[in-house]
Design brief:
The protein is mostly helical and 159 residues long. It is built from three helices and no strands.
């Protein structure tokens, strides 16, 4: 609102001043210049390089972890194979020991049976009164019979 005592010239001067102030508002104002211009492109390149380096480090870490896992799996596989081989050898040895023990027991039984047969024969021949004639044993003939018995055993196992 305008004061009541103002004159036309004053009102016109005030209107011109208001119009000038309104126009001044739209004029570009002087900017403050930076001492050194900011290179946004260089900043962007630096960020990109940092991201690339980080991704490369992550890729290398993943590769190293994968290689460690593969090496660990290979070591476990080798250990499992070694354990399986050792178990197989132990099983063979136990089977061999069992067969050996059975063979020893059979031989012992055969010896005891032969000894008992010999004792019964010697006791019956000495008590029977009739003396049996001792025959001479040919070592070559005994060896030939032994070889034949071995061959018969091999043939039975093949069949």
């Amino acid at each position: 609102m305008q004061p009541k005592n103002s004159t036309f010239a004053e009102r016109q001067a005030l209107a011109a001043a208001a119009k000038k102030a309104l126009l001044e508002k739209f004029k570009p104002k002087p900017m403050v210049q930076a001492e050194a211009p900011i290179d946004h492109e260089a900043e962007r390149r630096e960020r990109i390089e940092a991201i690339r380096a980080q991704r490369e480090a992550e890729r290398v870490e993943r590769q190293r972890a994968r290689e460690e896992a593969e090496a660990k799996a290979e070591a476990e596989r080798i250990a499992a194979e070694a354990a399986a081989e050792q178990a197989r050898i132990d099983a063979e040895l136990s089977v061999d020991a069992l067969k050996r023990a059975e063979r020893k027991a059979r031989k012992k039984e055969v010896k005891e049976a032969a000894k008992a047969k010999k004792e019964t024969r010697s006791s019956s021949s000495s008590s029977g009164g009739g003396q049996r004639e001792e025959r001479a044993v040919d070592p070559f003939e005994e060896h030939r019979r032994y070889i034949q018995s071995l061959e018969r055993g091999r043939e039975r196992r093949r069949a």
